[in-house]
């Protein structure tokens, strides 16, 4: 059984992509947004 460290696990995750346009989202701590800033700005609330 090969157990990897949590640091290695997170280093190997693919970058988060916007489901609307496919742009790679630069993640920030404590951010749970799924869309990029451009797609979020197009949405009306």
UniProtKB/TrEMBL annotation:
InterPro entries from the xrefs?
Answer: YhfH-like (IPR025432)
Pfam short name (any one): YhfH
**Superkingdom of the source species:** Bacteria
* UniProt-recorded name of the protein: YhfH family protein
């Amino acid at each position: 059984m090969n157990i990897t460290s949590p640091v290695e696990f997170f280093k190997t995750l693919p970058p988060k992509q916007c489901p609307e346009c496919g742009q790679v989202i630069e993640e920030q701590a404590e951010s749970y947004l799924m869309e990029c800033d451009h797609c979020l700005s197009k949405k009306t609330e």
